[in-house]
Design brief:
Structural class of chain A: alpha+beta
Order of helices and strands of chain B: HHEEHEEHEEHEEEHEHHEHHHHHHH
Shape of chain A: globular
Structural class of chain B: alpha+beta
Distance between the termini of chain A: 84 Å
Largest sheet of chain B: 11 strands, mixed
CATH topology of chain A: outer membrane lipoprotein receptor (LolB), chain A
Strand content of chain B: 15-25%
Distance between the termini of chain B: 31 Å
Radius of gyration of chain A: 21 Å
Number of strands of chain B: 11
Strand order of the largest sheet of chain A: 6-5-4-3-2-1-13-12-11-10-9-8-7
Number of helices of chain B: 15
Number of helices of chain A: 4
Order of helices and strands of chain A: HHEEEEEEHEEEEEEEH
Oligomer: heterodimer
CATH class of chain A: Mainly Beta
CATH superfamily of chain A: Lipoprotein localisation LolA/LolB/LppX
Helix content of chain B: 40-55%
Mean pLDDT of chain A: 86
């Protein structure tokens, strides 16, 4: 009887290890996720409709025009709505992120780690992904998220400058896209959960078109982003300049 | 001695009039010393409040460059800084304190507010423990790294109670997201004059979540014995840091505007590359423009009141003496007729003036002491932080300045002499016959 149990156990372990996702494969998944989000060789533009729900401030809708040039690591976010924020812009050029305030007509330095317009989305959520550069895969598990079969990747930051030291991402086995992301603090507290519920195939890349960022520290605080008007047409270099932001405000 | 006896007898003889003069001198003395004592108390408390809130007179922060080129705020080269402080004449330094600081969001359920949390070495910064005005709860137990003293703004924004647990969300010195949980044990009144509304925890606990080693910190503040030595001490420390191989920021353009100078503590020069800690020194005057202006206004008002009171006292005394002198013209004539010289008469009246002043000044001082002691017993609960700054533990503070009191005593005596001499001189200009008429 003992022999049979041992044989069944060894067979189970062998079977499991033969089909389970390894750390190396997890790293490959990260590489795919990064490349899915990068539009190298072409530009990217879209309209973002953000709904921010805050228990204190209520619900606010923001409409943003997004322009990206991933080849040169540039992006521009221009706020169109609400009227009070209209004309504000975030410009990433030469590794510096600038915020433009049309009221003072001044640019101030800001960080990718800062929240975008007091929402639950960070400025870094609007750039191409660089998970492979910033994180190591420390564990991979298989699981289910709703009806989807997923690989759950536990990530640990490779350096102490990354915003979230730990992440857990739920990657769909079908299409290798992120469906859910949990971001943890240095002390291991869950800070934010992101859901990527809709994707659109654009020039061979899956682009998340519906995202929910849920603040896990402040009860009831979340931001929903819907992306439309996606285009990969070339964007003139003059768009990624301070003068362009000033010009569109005149 | 003979003149003194006569003068004394004259003062006693004209009791009503002498008392009137004595009270006039006493009132003038009392008001002058009272105003000086009150404004002096304001000045001391404001200076003390600001120095306490900022931790001292000189502030030293540190920047370090990471391998990625990113600049973080911390002091690792603690030995260099310690050596620099040791180079300062110990008699000039009252104390020095190490602090860490984090800005982030204080969260209680669905409520959140942004705020600054300062890590204090409570064991060595006893002064702040005494100076913080706790409007709710207690400061006892703040040494526990899990406890927090909240600013009144944060307390109101979060709508919480003492002993509630809150979460503080912030970034470590290198920019990673982190959270810490604290139990609220007290609420500190804000220092609105310098716009300070910090919450306080222990440096030990804050360092551990900020990503700092136990012996590291972000700012070191020096409290001096005398604020007049700020420039001297700052120069000594800067020289010593450089001599010990430490790094200071590149010299700034002299034409930099005021805000640039004010923000120098937080400035990072992208053109400078360095290893280890780059120390930036700033001092009280960079932060307290508004407070210094307020102090200058208070001092100006105090001096104005002082001179006005002197003037009123002097005019009052001159007029009173003139009235008295008019009534005593006959007496002067009699004395002159009996062979008394003008000089002697003058001497006699001057002595009377001094005798009245000698009675009036201590009386005024006594009245001032009684009034100030009673006033300082009244507890004031200020609604606004700015008012709390001029108070000492919610009471008015009237410091006693012996030097000023002696100065006022001499000055009032001289005024009395001046007030006597003018009407006496004009009375003596008359002939004896006219005086006796």
């Amino acid at each position: 009887m003992k022999k049979i149990i041992t044989i069944i156990f060894i067979a189970a372990v062998t079977f499991n290890s033969a089909f389970a996702t390894t750390i190396e494969e997890g790293t490959e998944i990260l590489k795919i996720i990064d490349s899915q989000s990068n539009f190298e060789g072409s530009d990217f533009s879209a309209t973002l409709s953000m709904i921010s729900e805050d228990p204190e401030d209520g619900i606010e809708k923001t409409v943003v025009y997004q322009f990206r040039d991933d080849d040169d690591d540039k992006f521009l976010l221009l706020i169109k709505e609400p009227t009070i924020n209209k004309g504000q812009g975030y410009l990433l050029i030469d590794d510096n992120l600038w915020f433009y305030d049309p009221d003072s007509r001044k640019f101030s330095h800001t960080s990718m780690k800062e929240q975008f317009n007091d929402s639950d989305a960070n400025n870094s959520d609007f750039t191409s992904s660089s998970l492979l550069e910033d994180y190591n895969v420390v564990a991979v598990e298989e699981g289910k998220l709703g009806s989807y079969d997923v690989n759950i990747l536990s990530l640990e930051a490779t350096n102490n400058e990354v915003t979230y030291p730990f992440q857990e991402i739920y990657v769909s086995k079908q299409g290798t896209v992120t469906l859910k992301k949990e971001e943890f603090s240095k002390s291991g507290t869950l800070l934010r959960t992101s859901y990527y519920t809709k994707y659109k195939l654009v020039d061979g890349n899956y682009v998340a078109t519906y995202m929910i960022f849920q603040d896990e520290l402040i009860e009831g605080k979340k931001t929903t982003i819907q992306i439309s008007n996606i285009s990969t047409d070339d964007i003139p270099d003059s768009v990624f300049t301070k003068s362009y932001i000033e010009r569109v405000n005149n | 001695m003979k003149y003194f006896k006569i003068a004394n007898r004259n003062v006693k003889r004209q009791k009503k009039k002498s008392n009137m003069l004595t009270f006039a001198i006493a009132f003038g003395t009392m008001v002058i010393i009272l105003i000086q004592s009150l404004t002096s108390g304001f000045t001391i408390n404001i200076e003390k409040g600001i120095t306490s809130a900022l931790g001292g007179h000189i502030y030293i922060s540190g920047d370090e460059q990471l391998d990625s080129g990113k600049i973080v705020n911390k002091i690792s080269d603690v030995d260099i800084l310690q050596a620099a402080i040791n180079d300062v004449d110990p008699s000039l330094i009252k104390s020095y304190h190490k602090r860490s600081n984090a800005n982030g969001n204080l969260i209680f359920h669905s409520q959140s507010t942004s705020g600054s949390v300062v890590g204090i070495d409570w064991e060595n910064e006893e002064q702040l423990r005494n100076d913080l005005v706790i409007i709710e709860g207690t400061i006892d137990g703040i040494d526990n790294p899990e406890n927090i003293i909240l600013s009144e703004e944060a307390f109101e924004d979060l709508g919480i109670n003492i002993r509630d647990d809150i979460v503080f969300s912030f970034q470590t010195v290198s920019g990673q997201e982190n959270v810490a949980s604290y139990s609220v044990i007290g609420v500190a009144q804000s220092n609105s004059l310098i716009g300070d509304s910090s919450s306080y925890v222990s440096i030990e606990g804050l360092n551990s979540v900020l990503g700092l080693d136990a012996n590291q910190y972000q700012t070191l503040t020096l409290e001096l014995e005398d604020a007049n030595n700020i420039a001297q001490v700052q120069a000594t420390i800067e020289t010593s840091i450089e001599e010990n191989g430490g790094v200071l920021p590149l010299p700034t353009d002299e034409e930099d505007d005021f805000m640039s100078a004010r923000m120098s503590m937080f400035a990072t020069d992208i053109n400078q590359e360095w290893e280890g800690t780059r120390f930036t020194l700033s001092n009280l005057t960079d932060f307290t423009e508004a407070a210094i202006t307020a102090l200058n206004v208070i001092n100006a008002i105090a001096y104005a009141i002082f001179f006005i009171m002197l003037l009123i006292t002097m005019v009052g005394l001159i007029n009173t003496f003139r009235l008295i002198m008019n009534e005593r013209v006959l007496e002067i004539g009699t004395m002159r007729a009996m062979g008394m010289q003008k000089k002697s008469v003058k001497k006699l009246f001057n002595l009377e003036g001094i005798l009245i002043a000698v009675k009036g000044v201590p009386l005024g001082l006594f009245a001032e002491l009684v009034i100030t002691r009673i006033a300082s017993l009244i507890k004031i609960n200020p609604d606004q932080g700015a008012i709390s700054l001029i108070l000492k533990e919610n009471h008015l503070y009237f410091p006693i300045n012996i030097g000023f009191i002696l100065f006022v005593a001499v000055l009032v005596s001289l005024i009395s002499l001046f007030a006597v001499s003018r009407p006496v001189n004009s009375a003596l200009k008359k002939s004896v016959a006219d005086e006796l008429r």
